[in-house]
TrEMBL record, chain A:
This is Colony stimulating factor 3. GO terms for biological process: immune response; positive regulation of myeloid cell differentiation. PANTHER family: GRANULOCYTE COLONY-STIMULATING FACTOR. InterPro entries: 4_helix_cytokine-like_core, GCSF/MGF, IL-6/GCSF/MGF, IL6/GCSF/MGF_CS. GO terms for cellular component: extracellular region.
UniProtKB/TrEMBL annotation, chain B:
Belongs to the type I cytokine receptor family. Type 2 subfamily. One of its GO terms (molecular function) is cytokine receptor activity. PANTHER family: INTERLEUKIN-27 RECEPTOR SUBUNIT ALPHA. One of its GO terms (cellular component) is plasma membrane. PROSITE patterns: FN3 (PS50853), HEMATOPO_REC_L_F2 (PS01353). Pfam families: Lep_receptor_Ig. Keywords: Disulfide bond, Glycoprotein, Immunoglobulin domain, Membrane, Receptor, Repeat, Signal, Transmembrane, Transmembrane helix. This is Fibronectin type-III domain-containing protein. It comes from Cyanoderma ruficeps.
Length: 187, 526
């Protein structure tokens, strides 16, 4: 029996009895909740500081901005593929880890919270990587320094709006990732 | 001024001009196991020792200030060499001096310092807690026996596949340090251990394998409100907030409460929902509530937070329930056909008082459909004397609090004819109690009344010196009272007086034998 086979679709139930896998899911569900809570805290700060609170008030400005979208379609229920989903979560965490530099520049007084968030994201990615390796799945090891270019913004206002959307998108990303983990835990 | 300077690494002392390089002391080892042998040699370079160029050189040794014997011989290049062997070096630290005779005086010309000790002891009892404010992992341990040698201690940690890194280094003399967040891997097992190293070796503690979150130290929750809901039930609704920083955790919380007089807490697990309802409380009673929480994880390491600050809440009152224990005495009053009755009763127990008793009411008939019969007594005391027409068979006593009045307890004013129980005797319990024993009468008994009174120069009336034993099958009862303090000048002497069996038909006082007892002595019949 190869546990990784269970991650490719139908016979996922075989993993539900794997205690280590269940423990991984329970731990990292809580971890994801922690990260979501910290992102929500930053969203509140952006709202309080820049009066940027509602997405539908910023759709016009957004059209002119190049804000990275992170694919996570393999984690959606209809197309769920656990192995690819895990890889997409890790890739996304990597992207957002870099994007958070934008937030750090925007909110220097909250640099500590952003750093905590980045450490948590790195740990979560590492936890997923190790679990995938335990299951015999192929993983990517990212270099410790993020080489991706930081997003640039034409004005300070665009920087603020960019920060707002990075956090909003990241929150949605985390919600999808959380649901994917919960889906696996419920099998 | 004769200054000396130690040359690091070679342990040779260079003396100022004239004695520069005159002597060199070379130990085999600067640090040795305590009790092992130490060897050293001292080489005198005659041509570098001004004043020693000519004549015989006599080398001697001193360990601190105590002479020790070496063996001297000529070395290469015209040097004089003395070898020293100390078979058991029992000092943890000592200076070894090389000396030469000069003008009849022993001159110190070279020195080395030897240290002795043990390899580090294995660090013990390693434990860690994660501080949720900065996510630093603070670990503490015990070092074990002193090695007597400079020992470096570090806390090592490694992720499940990572390289071991130094997590933190304790300050000198401390047995704890904190691994910063950046070196931790949260929500996955890490290996943590203490490594102690000195010149004689390295010792490691047991390796702790923990997910740092499993040892998170939670702040206690805060009890926000306690209230009786719904009214007139014995239930209480509680609301609480869990500590900051635990929002993402699944918690298990525990509630405990007790009334001030309760010896033990009532405890119960309640979820983390933030509200809960508990039932079974006494009415009109103050309770003290506390809560604590812990992470609901599979790990046995998850520890409880401290108990929250307590919150007092007094449950709402309800009208008293149950029957009162009542007892009476009567005698004809004058010639007017009246009966003088002394009625006494016991306060209800808390379970039946349902709040703070405000008073008692005695009536000649029970209250019916809200119509209040005339009150004979309305008192806060537990006794009442009154006159009733001779032939009155019943009176009623009830108790009330702020929430209402109890159903009346019927007291039958009918003297029972019959024999009292025989074999009445009393034995001391402790200085505040007596055991009273009697023999069961042949006729069935519903309950017994025990009555006693202090025996002083003039026996005084004691309104509380009685009790009812409700178990008709009992032949013993414990009576309690203030018998007097041991060793006091006039110890109060108490005496069980009456033991009246009461039956369902006509309870009432009956003459019984009297016993007299002094505190600490058996009663005996008068």
């Amino acid at each position: 029996w190869a546990p990784w086979q269970a991650l490719h679709g139908a016979p996922l139930t075989e993993l539900s009895g794997d205690q280590d896998f269940q423990l991984f899911l329970q731990r990292n569900l809580e971890f994801t909740r922690k990260i979501r809570g910290d992102v929500a805290a930053l969203q509140r700060v952006v709202c309080d500081t820049f009066q940027l609170c509602k997405e539908d008030e910023l759709l016009l400005v957004r059209q002119d901005m190049d804000i990275t979208q992170v694919p996570l379609e393999q984690c959606h229920k209809r197309t769920f593929q656990a192995e690819t989903c895990f890889s997409q979560i890790r890739a996304g965490l990597r992207v957002y880890q870099g994007s958070l530099a934008t937030i750090q520049a925007l909110l220097p007084r909250h640099a500590g919270l952003v750093e905590t968030l980045q450490l948590d994201m790195a740990n979560l990615s590492s936890n997923i990587q190790q679990q995938m390796e335990d299951l015999g799945l192929a993983t990517v090891t990212y270099p410790s320094e993020n080489q991706d270019p930081r997003p640039t913004f034409s004005t300070h206002f665009h920087h603020q709006v960019g920060g707002f959307f990075i956090l909003a998108n990241f929150q949605r990303f985390l919600e999808t990732a959380y649901r994917a983990l919960r889906h696996l835990a419920s099998l | 001024m004769a200054l000396s300077q130690q040359c690091s690494g070679c342990d040779t002392f260079f003396l100022p001009a004239g004695t520069l390089g005159c002597a060199s002391v070379t130990p085999d080892s600067l640090i040795v196991p305590l009790g092992s042998a130490v060897t050293a040699s001292c080489t005198i370079h005659r041509e570098l020792c001004r004043g020693l160029e000519q004549g015989k050189i006599r080398i001697s040794w001193m360990l601190d200030n105590k002479p020790v014997a070496g063996s001297q011989h000529q070395g290469p290049g015209g040097t004089e060499v003395s070898n020293l062997t100390l078979p058991r070096f029992n000092h943890t630290q000592a200076k070894l001096w090389c000396c030469v005779e000069w003008n009849g005086t022993k001159q110190r010309v070279g020195k080395t310092e030897i240290r002795a000790g043990y390899p580090p002891a294995k660090p013990l009892n390693l434990s860690c807690i994660l501080n949720l404010s900065d996510y630093g992992l603070t670990c503490q341990w015990e070092q074990g026996t002193d090695s007597h040698l400079p020992t470096s201690v570090v806390l090592k940690c490694a992720g499940s596949r990572g390289q071991a890194v130094t997590g933190c280094t304790p300050r000198e003399g401390h047995r704890h340090c904190t691994v910063p967040r950046r070196l931790l891997q949260l929500y996955r097992q890490m290996e943590i251990w203490v490594s102690a190293t000195n010149a004689l070796g390295t010792a490691e503690s047991e390796h702790l394998c923990i997910d740092p979150m499993d040892v998170a130290k939670l702040d206690p929750p805060t009890l926000q409100s306690v209230q009786s809901i719904p009214f007139q039930t014995d239930c209480v609704a509680l609301a609480w907030d869990t500590a900051r920083g635990t929002e993402h955790m699944e918690l298990q919380c525990e509630l405990r409460y007790r009334a001030p007089e309760d010896p033990a807490w009532v405890t119960g697990i309640i979820g983390r929902a933030g509200t809960a309802q508990r039932c079974g409380f006494l009415f009109g009673t103050q309770y003290h509530f506390q809560m604590r929480c812990r992470r609901n994880s599979a790990s046995a390491l998850a520890s409880w937070s401290k108990w929250s600050p307590g919150r007092n809440y007094t449950t709402h009152e309800k009208a008293p329930t149950g029957k009162l224990d009542a007892w009476w005495g009567a005698q004809p009053a004058g010639t007017g056909g009246l009966l003088e009755v002394q009625l006494r009763w016991k306060p209800p127990r808390q379970r039946e008082a349902n709040g703070r008793v405000l008073g008692y009411r005695v009536t000649l008939s029970p209250r019916r459909r809200g119509r209040d019969p005339p009150t004979i007594c309305n008192t806060t005391h537990t006794q009442c004397s009154f006159s009733v027409p001779a032939g009155t068979r019943r009176v009623y006593v009830s108790v009330y609090n702020a929430a209402g009045e109890s159903a009346p307890t019927e007291v039958v004013l009918l003297e029972r004819k019959g024999q009292p129980p025989a074999g009445l005797r009393a034995v001391p319990g402790d200085e505040h109690s007596l055991w009273v024993h009697w023999e069961a009468p042949l006729a069935p008994v519903m309950a017994y009344v025990l009555e006693w009174q202090p025996v002083t120069a003039e026996p005084e009336y004691c309104s509380t010196c009685w009790q009812i034993e409700h178990d008709g099958a009992a032949t013993t009862a414990l009576i309690q009272g203030k018998w007097g303090l041991p060793g006091g000048p006039h110890p109060l002497v108490s005496c069980p007086r009456g033991l009246a069996p009461t039956g369902p038909a006509a309870p009432g006082p009956a003459p019984t034998s009297w016993l007299s007892t002094a505190a600490g002595a058996h009663c005996s019949s008068l």
